[in-house]
Amino acid sequence: MTAFVNQLPIGLSIGAVLLLVALGLTFTFGQMGVINMAHGEFIMAGAYTAFLIGDLVLALPAAFLVAGAMGLVLERAAVRHFYGRPLDTLLLTWGVSLVLQQLARDLFGAPNVQVPAPSWLAGGVGILPYNRLFIMALAVAGVVAVWLYLNRTALGRRTQAVVQNRRLAATSGIDTGRVDMLTFFVGSGLAGVAGVALTLIGPVGPGLGTYYIVDAFLVVVAGGLGQLRGAVLAAAGLGLLNSYAEFWSDASLAKVIVFAVIIAFLQVRPQGMFVLRSRVLT
Amino acid sequence: MRDLIRRNLPFAAVAVVALVAAPLLLEPFRLGLLAKYLCYAIVALGIGLAWGKGGMLTLGQGVFFGLGGYAMAMYLKLTEAGPGGLPDFMVWSGVEELPALWAPFASPVLALGMAVLGPMALAVVLGTLVFRQRVRGAYFAILTQALAAALVILLVGQQGLTGGTNGMTNFFELFGRDLAEDSTQRGLYLVTAGVLGVLYLATRQLVNSRFGRLLVAVRDGEDRVRFLGYDPALVKTVTFAISAGMAGLAGALFVPVVGIISPALLGVVPSLELVVAVAVGGRHALAGAVLGAVVMGYAKTAFSEQFADGWLYLQGALFILVMTLAPKGIAGLLGRVRRARTA
Amino acid sequence: MRISRPIVPVALALALAACGSDAQPAAEAQEIKVGLLHSLSGTMAISEVTVRDAELLAIDEINRAGGVLGKKLVPVAEDGASDWPTFAEKATKLIRQDKVATVFGGWTSASRKAMLPVFERYKALLWYPVQYEGLESSPYIFYTGATTNQQIIPGLDYLKEQGKKKVFLVGSDYVFPRTANKIIKAYAAANGMEVLGEEYTPLGHTEYSTLVNKVVQARPDAVFNTLNGDSNVAFFKQLKSAGVTAETMPVLSVSVAEEEVTGIGVDNIAGHPVAWNYYQTTETPANEAFVKAYKAKYGATKVTSDPMEAGYNAVYLWAEAVKKAGTTEVEAVKKAAPGISLDRPEGKVTIDGENQHLYKTARIGIIQPDGLIKQVWDSGEPIKPDPYLKAYPWAAGLAAS
């Protein structure tokens, strides 16, 4: 029975990890329609930043900047030529992701590296270790920050305007190119932050990004494009589902169950939980 | 008549090279590799149809390829085990009785049928579910990718039934012929090349038909096609099923050619690599898709024989370059050259 | 799309030409080509590159000592790319095109299973250097790593000696963990031990909170861990943060060696036991020389591990068999190999004539705070390899041979 009850916080903490890795995608994929397969490698870049800095707290802003800068370069150099062609960006960024993986292998070596966890994160409350609580807190902070950015800053409101109607926004004097750049920067930066958090619970190696990318996309798809509350609910839901499905069966089956549930869910709500209403004709 | 000949001349030239020159000139090892690339080319042809013509970016084509491959592998394993026998991997997985799922695959007709119809049926189910709900574009791409990831986990988890991560290997004979013999391998190569040729012609015919025009129309303006009274979901589902069937057949050919099927061959990465190959060759032309698969297959072999680490760089860079500089792929580039000359 | 048609014949002809153009010149009479087939890219590269390095070191040393039959060994390295069909393809290339005398290669069982038909078909030799799940004895493969009765069973003997009665089994979802766990369950049934749970996770899995919860709730005396690769990092990190220590619940691993310890983090794994046949700290004269030579060639911070040592041994054992046979011809080498006995870094190893495995000494070690492994138990003498566990009555019926 305890084990069963324990799965509840465990599920939420799995959800927090999913939310963290997917948060950046709600920007790049959700807001801009860019399928960034290199998102996983930006997460990896964040993790390696933590490795280089060696201090978790300092690494958070640093990783945000490093991954954000990488995103910025990617957007300026390539992605911006592809707006409106999401499938092409998918292939393009997959190429980028391959290059970044090999680059990490050449720079840091193929074996995993170790990022020491800070001593103040040792221990825990009940079934949840402090490091899991830290990740949950970070996820909540991330969501709040994103919400504030989108709704309470001029830049964020401009971003929303561009998402809802790019042409009208441009006509209204918004520099859509600048908004795109910034959105990509923030989205990629959030991936970097996720990478730092992941060093607490998983391996830090060139393949890090590949372990999370599919799950991250599923969260965004289930939540609805560009929908922050959708992503939050989807991440929590998938986390809990994962936790209980694995509890009753095993890890392999749990993954298959999660996928089946998502397909079934998209039958009911093909656009995800929440739909952005827009008057733009497809 | 003259037009008909002129139109088919390039195809005939390729056919001669592939069916006559290659088996004569290449040593058996290289011919086997070429046969492998041609198997991938069959999958690529299907992707070219679904993606290039129909706008459906399928990132899970490995699923269908794998189902076809496993169907064939099950047949091969069963013929070797003989009546009442068990495939080798079941013995070391501790399975004592042949699972009921396996029983039909003792028949070559059923096994081959399953290799093609199984993937098609799955595609119809999936297509009906997602296309009816107007799930498209990126959503569809990600769903198919997740399907590939899920199938790999499922196959790996059912070791007694599927051979787990190892997959199935160690095949000795096909229809009574020794697979180790060079002559058998040459025969397999010719069959593969023949199948590819026939499928290419058939697909070209399909694309040029009324259905093909409807498909392109769905790609370019799904809602408009719907307003005109057609059912885009049906058109897409049929196309998706055809491409799945091709992938399944390719998988069935791949197994005796290469001698192994394993989950690693049908996961996220191999599925993506095939899409890459199509993009590099040129997705808007069916011939481009085929060409891309052969070129990328060859490049991978050649590169990894020279410098292993570089392959990822090259593949990634090639990809970035093709997408940014030549989105129509090699076929598009060559087309441009040709147009410039005739102009 | 008319534009594209004419290009196809041209391109195909080009590809064909390229395919056919790389016929190799005949090997020079003064050289013997040997194939090295490991993953140099992909997920397995992390482990397999080190084995290849150790094999290259052995080839170097042998060449410096005058080579084999007066000829120099020339390594031909190919990349298995962590992809089983590629292993089969490259093995074919090494045998048919490069005409190597023998191949040293593989790591995962899946790669070995994929190569096996190739070596049997062309009657060529493969030396496989990694501990594995047993139940195999190909006439064209020499196995220089441990089989189950030289690693899994000694590991269980050790746990039993320590009074651990209740165990929990955790493994990656593939053939080695599943077979190992079948053996463990049969052993437990015969030895009064209890298996509290058996869990598998997909390869590359990194979310272990649910599994850790299951383990903690079951309260086993020990965990038998057959996880592979990156999963070990996630598992040990999450186990540690759940408050599990080596004192309360030791986790015996059979796929964690010296080089994995850094990535997992010494803090997370120190104190837990592992089962192998060799450690960097193993005290033999041959090991002192091996560690020194390896560090000299590849860097002072590098560590040596069991599979590396097994790969290093494979080259020496093959060279010895060739010397004895007086030729590199496969059947002659196979005939000469049984009974060959050498003092290697892990101590004395002998090729068994029956199944082409090695007699090896089993060793249990504890991971130290410096990342190295200290031996705390050994089997005393080399154990006769028994891939089908015929000598263990309780294992009858595990698998028909």
Automatic annotation (TrEMBL), chain A:
It is a multi-pass membrane protein. GO terms for cellular component: plasma membrane. The chain crosses the membrane at residues 12-35, 47-74, 133-150, 182-204, 216-241, 253-270. Pfam families: BPD_transp_2 (PF02653). CDD domains: TM_PBP1_LivH_like (cd06582). It comes from the Bacteria. Keywords: Amino-acid transport, Cell membrane, Membrane, Transmembrane, Transmembrane helix, Transport. It is found in: Cell membrane. GO terms for molecular function: transmembrane transporter activity. Belongs to the binding-protein-dependent transport system permease family. LivHM subfamily. This is Urea transport system permease protein.
UniProtKB/TrEMBL annotation, chain B:
InterPro entries: ABC_transp_permease, ABC_transptr_urea_perm_UrtC, LivM-like. Keywords: Cell membrane, Membrane, Transmembrane, Transmembrane helix. It comes from the Bacteria. The keyword Acyltransferase does not apply. It is a multi-pass membrane protein. GO terms for molecular function: branched-chain amino acid transmembrane transporter activity. It is found in: Cell membrane. Pfam families: BPD_transp_2. Its main location: membrane. The chain crosses the membrane at residues 9-26, 32-51, 58-76, 109-131, 138-157, 233-254, 285-304, 310-334. The keyword Cytoplasm does not apply. GO terms for cellular component: plasma membrane. This is Urea transport system permease protein. It comes from Nonomuraea wenchangensis.
From TrEMBL, chain C:
It comes from the Bacteria. Residues 1-23 form the signal peptide. GO terms for biological process: amino acid transport. Keywords: Signal. The keyword Protease does not apply. PROSITE patterns: PROKAR_LIPOPROTEIN. InterPro entries: ABC_urea-bd_UrtA, Leu_Ile_Val-bd, Peripla_BP_I. Pfam families: Peripla_BP_5 (PF13433). PANTHER family: ALIPHATIC AMIDASE EXPRESSION-REGULATING PROTEIN, PTHR47628. This is Urea transport system substrate-binding protein. It comes from Nonomuraea wenchangensis.
